[in-house]
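ASSEMBLY PREDICTION REQUEST
Request ID: AP-0331
Submitted by: J.K., bench scientist
Number of chains: two
Total residues: 549
Priority: normal
Notes: Please return the full assembly, not individual chains.
Input sequences:
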Amino acid sequence: MLNPFEYFGISPNASRAELDNAYRQMREQNKCDKNADSLIRDISENKLREIDEVYRQALGCISRGERTAQPPQNPAPAPPANNSNTQNQNTYNQNNSQKNDQTNKYADFENNYNKINALINSKNFSAAEHILLEYNLVGYAKWHYVFARLRFSQGWMNEALDNYKKAYELEPYNQIYRQSYENICNMRDGKIKKHSNKAAVGIAIGIGTFYCCCNVSPYLAETQSCVECLNETGITSVCLEPCADGISAYCNSLCVECCGGCPG
Amino acid sequence: MFGYIKPFKPYMRFSEFQVYNGFYCGLCKNLGKNYGQLYRMMLSYDFAFLGILCCSFNDKPLHFEPQHCIIHPFSKKLCLKDIEVLDFTAAAAVISVYQKLCDSISDTGLIKSIPYRLLRLLAKRGYKRAIRKYPDTASKIQLEMNRQLKLESENCTSIDYACEPTAQIMSELAGKIPEDREQSETFSGFGYHLGRFVYLADAYDDAEKDLKKNNYNVLLNYSKDINTAKKLADDNINMSLSMIAEYYSKMKIKRFKDIIDNVIFLGLKSFSMPKKQKKQKEIVL
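STATUS: Completed
Returned structure:
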């Protein structure tokens, strides 16, 4: 397997900004025309997906501090096991059964994941809170993410920020976690998403920074254009496809051409 | 706790400010008529804002008329004539002020609380009348105030948990404004984050005083360093303001949008600006 940095044509010690630039350039080059043949569109989509995958691996490399030519492996979320190397057979068996219990807990959590999300969406916060605190899988990114979602919906912003941060730190290559964390960081830094005329005044006086609805440009944009291709014709179809986990991908103001599908 | 929801005067049109004052005066007259002269003195712009929110949701024609006022005996000020629309706001004001008095009494020592106790005695009659008119709101507010006292005595360390009582009170008050259920939920969310903002802004302002007197302040439970505590408050305030703006964009307001925009986008954030400019500094344009 190719080294992700070689794939983008940058040195292994490149910065995050250089990687992002290279990623964007590659995507631009491999995008095909809207009206192209369906075969060409298929090839183009496959290529874009490949680019996304390698980008994610490169991000994982950067976050782990690995800059060698070693191909990275996809880290699976391993449950922290309570292993202790003792000679005693009983303790060994006990440890094994403890490990089994913990693995069962994780499997159980995965099975109930959709149910918990449904509870949050239907605003049944106390039930969701009760279930999540029972599991208490501190150190497991998915648990932190769902807990952050619950706290955000309840309005407990401080805990939501902490848990989104934890989920992102545990799995930095996960685009959903990254975007949720970036979103809440923007809110924390005073960048209000929705625009208004008074907001423009706010910028002039220096009270806070107001961003347009895409949360990207610091000036007010009246048109809801896609931030990648600035496609201003008609309404942008933002990515709202439910990903494999069963929850919708975060709306990142990209039209379906540029969104590249759900990372799930 | 009161005085954080106010308009940003440098960027408010004079006509809008006259309307805002009209609501303030109308509320003052309503309080004097229904609850006695004492509550008129304890009015603040926060409740005028609540009154504007109440009226912005419906289309009922409102009459304003220049009228005299005890505070301004020489000039007539624009005042709202149909003061019945502000009944709910007035009751909310009375209940909140009374509960704040009780809160102050429990915070200060025996000797210092004597003037507060005297005030409370005089204010009790109006409070009972307000409870009779809106019993469930009053009981909810009382419950939340009790919860606030309890968590203060337990020295609560979680910011979110400490903001909860104030947030729930504002959420309850705001949720009663619209009649249909969906808008009521949006208004509740709006009120919730407004309450969080008020509590955090209060904690931010009182941080230095509480550090000296060793009073309860949830920010100081995170760190004794003033700057870190204030930064934490700033972060949470920004997040709440973002949520306020999001809920606000979903609310279907029919009028007074300019005034509400001014308060939400400019007025709230300016809470940390110095209240009175003692000496006008030189500016270059």
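REVIEWER COMMENTS: The longest helix of chain B spans residues 181-213.
SIGN-OFF: pending second reviewer
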